[in-house]
């Protein structure tokens, strides 16, 4: 079982470049999330989605965009990369029913902006 | 505004002893709490949870205690094993939210269990 798959695992960007972090889940989960983890700061929610076609901002959405055209995929777009976006990004998914709060995370994508 | 805080960045214990990881929260709307475990180069994985209607939940070697009046929860691991060495994140949410499980995470505590 693949679970939540993120690509790429590592990426180095130059300031001002753009890129998309891919996320796919094969568990038929309605809910999907993007978090970022900075050293000593825990995980912060960037965007989330409760189903195909529905997305909403989390705690730290500035500089990012998302789309959810299918249940399986939830890509995160970085426009005009900045050094402050250097972080480890985690995609996660969860069931709608029962809503236990348990998130299933991918392995993470480490992004460095130079 | 850090609504979920784990004040100890690291904890070191001997194999076989008890590990106690602590977490404090400030938002009184939180009514569901979870602990996640993270190994290096992996995503966090769910460990155990507790609803605000309970004050204790056990799962094998792991027990979570909730003190609502103090807005404090703790994770006890007994006995601790070297394989438990990982970063532990405390997380909280408001179950009344219908829009998914938006968790607020603490900063994490690095647990090291020495053989």
Q: Can you tell me about this structure?
A:
- The complex is a heterodimer of chains A (114) and B (115).
- Chain A is built from no helices and eleven strands.
- The mean pLDDT of chain A is 93.
- In chain A, the strands form two sheets. In chain A, strands 2, 4, 5, 6, 9, 10 and 11 form a seven-stranded mixed sheet that branches.
- In chain A, 0% of the residues lie in helices and 49% in strands.
- With 114 residues, chain A is mainly beta.
- The termini of chain A are far apart.
- Chain A has strands spanning 4-7, 10-13, 19-25, 31-37, 43-51, 54-57, 64-66, 76-78, 87-94, 104-105, 109-113.
- Chain B is mainly β.
- Chain B has strands at 4-5, 10-14, 19-25, 32-38, 45-51, 56-59, 62-67, 72-77, 86-93, 104-105, 109-114.
- In chain B, strands 2, 4, 5, 9, 10 and 11 form a six-stranded mixed sheet that branches. A five-stranded antiparallel sheet of chain B has the order 1-3-8-7-6, with no helix packed on it.
- In chain B, a hairpin with a 4-residue loop joins strand 7 and strand 8 (72-77).
- The radius of gyration of chain B is 14 Å and the shape is globular.
- In chain B, 36% of the residues are buried.
- Chains A and B meet through strand 4, strand 5, strand 9 and strand 10 of A and strand 4, strand 5, strand 9 and strand 10 of B.
């Amino acid at each position: 079982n693949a679970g939540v798959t993120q690509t790429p695992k590592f990426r180095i960007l130059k300031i001002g470049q753009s890129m998309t972090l891919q996320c796919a889940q094969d568990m038929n989960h309605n809910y999907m999330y993007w978090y970022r983890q900075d050293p000593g700061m825990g995980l912060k929610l960037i965007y989330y989605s409760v189903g195909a076609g529905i997305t909403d901002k989390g705690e730290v959405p500035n500089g990012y965009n998302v789309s959810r055209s299918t249940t399986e995929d939830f890509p995160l777009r970085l426009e005009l990369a900045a050094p402050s976006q250097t972080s480890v990004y985690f995609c996660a998914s969860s069931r709608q029913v029962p809503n236990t709060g348990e998130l299933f995370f991918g392995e993470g994508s480490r992004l460095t902006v130079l | 505004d850090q609504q979920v805080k784990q004040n100890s960045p690291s904890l070191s214990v001997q194999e076989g002893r008890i590990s106690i990881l602590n977490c404090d929260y400030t938002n009184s709307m939180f009514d569901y709490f979870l602990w996640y475990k993270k190994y290096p180069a992996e995503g966090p994985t769910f460990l155990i949870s507790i609803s605000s209607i309970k004050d204790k939940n056990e799962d094998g070697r792991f027990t979570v205690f909730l003190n609502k009046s103090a807005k404090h929860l703790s994770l006890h691991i007994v006995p601790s094993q070297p394989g438990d060495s990982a970063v532990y994140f405390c997380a909280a949410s408001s179950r009344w939210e219908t829009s998914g499980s938006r968790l607020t995470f603490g900063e994490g505590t690095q647990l090291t269990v020495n053989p």
